[in-house]
Structures are given as structure tokens and as C-alpha cells.
Design brief:
Length: 307
Amino acid sequence: MKIKSSSLTDIGLTAIAPAIWGSTYLVTTEFLPHGYPLTVAMLRALPAGLILLLIVRQLPQGIWWARSFILGALNFSFFWAMLFVSAYRLPGGVAATVGAIQPLIVVMLARLLIGTPVKTMAIVAGIVGMAGVGLLVLTPGAALDPIGILAGLAGAVSMAFGTVLTRHWAPPVTSLTFTAWQLTAGGLLLLPVALLFEPALPVPTMANVLGIAWLGLIGAAFTYLLWFRGLAKLEPAAVASLGFLSPLVATLLGWGALGQDLTPLQIAGMAAVLASVWLGQRAQMALGPAAALVAKPVSPYGAARHS
């Protein structure tokens, strides 16, 4: 089946987001102070969201206030909090592998919430992707911590719900405005939690400022603009499968920038991840007209908007 050039463009632009997210580990370890995960998450979301709000100059109306905070929590606040808990309690490889179950969860949620048919190829793509991530990042001595595993699964479920609901609710605004709403809401929800549970940040160095700027402006504002744009044009499962690119890029950056070894198993994992992404896109393109079973865009007050 031939994929249309417009779809290839949408896939390519959306794939930039998880590719950039793959730099998060490098930036966090090399540029940011250690021990402030919630504060860093808040600084990543809130300033970027406020800057975008100043650009779009549009606030939510009606039901979109609640939806923005729900999606902000699912896609940012709760997801990032669980991600950090998982990362602190599990080796990075185990945490990444647990999180890699997200595309499979998205496939099931998309079926339940928006009626997207489940394709066998999509399930196979998710399993191949998880195996590829495991080969990329797992080590023989990786330990399992029950709380870390639960946190990783909770984060994957949170982001999966956020991914599907973003498509299901179909915001009546541009992707830029919708990104601004969610980032700001997510940052506001993180603010009191960070102030309550973490000490004040030390005086930032130039490296700290550059790291936060990268994670906020590029790793949050720019990437989620592309991510939400992709969700408006592609099926949720197709978008979610692109997330496998994040650990692949992280591994390549570790090899290229930090001098980490690249083993034959990791190379095999990269091949599996790329195969999974390709299968995931083919599976969703094979859905045809049935994939259009999604909610129509609605107005800020909840009434259906007709073109």
C-alpha cells in the first residue's frame, strides 16, 4: 500500500518530537542540577506555556478549561511525575522498557473511546517496538522495583489516555493554542507540588539555564506543537508508535556525545525499533475510511462545529 505524500509529511513532522525527546536524558544529566525532578518538570512546562499564551492571546472557554487541565495533567503533570518516580527507582533500561508499552495501550483505548479498529499489524508493531527498546537499553543486571514498575505503567497509561483524548475531543483551535493551554495547565498543576516537596533550586549556572531553555522551548513547546498537530491529522496509534524513536535517539546520543559503547544487541534493537515504527504506520494507513471514526471538532461551548 502506497502512503500519500501528505501523510508522509505529517508522519515526518510528528516524528521530530520523540526524536528531540531522546535528548532529554543527555540534557538532564549534563546540564541540570540533580535532585529536583518536579521543579525541573514545572520549569519545563510553565514558562513555555506562558510564552505560547502571550503569542496566541487566547484563553480556553467553557468546557475547554476543564479539558485543558485534564489533558495537561495526563500529558504533562502526572505523566512526568510518574516518569521521574520510575526513573529514580528503576535502572533507565527497565524504566524505558516499561514505558514502551504505551503504544499498545493507545491501540486499545482508541478502540474503546473513538472506535478505531484494532489491526493485528499494530499489535505486532507494538510488541516488536517493546522488544527493540529492551535490546537498546536493558542490561543483564537490571533490577526490578515494584513501585518503580507501577509508576512506569501509570505514566504510560496517563500519556496513552492523553494521546487518545486529545484526538477524541478535537480542540476547536490551532495546535499552537492547544499546546499553550496544556503546557500552562500542566505547569500550574506541578507548581504547588514542586514547592511543597522539593527544596529551592540553587543559583542556576549558565549550563542550567541553557538546559532548561532547551527542555522548555524546544523539548516542550516546539515538540508538543508538532505532537498535537500530528494527533489532529493521524491516528493516535500511529502517533504513539513514533514514540519508540525517543530511546533510539537517546542511545545514539549516548554513543556519539558521551562515548558510550554501542553493542551488536543495541544495533539489533535499533533495527527492531525502526521496523516497529514502519509497521505501525502501515497498520494505521491500512485502516482507510474506518479510521475516521473520531469525534467532530466542537466549539468552545461544546456544540458541534460544522464546516
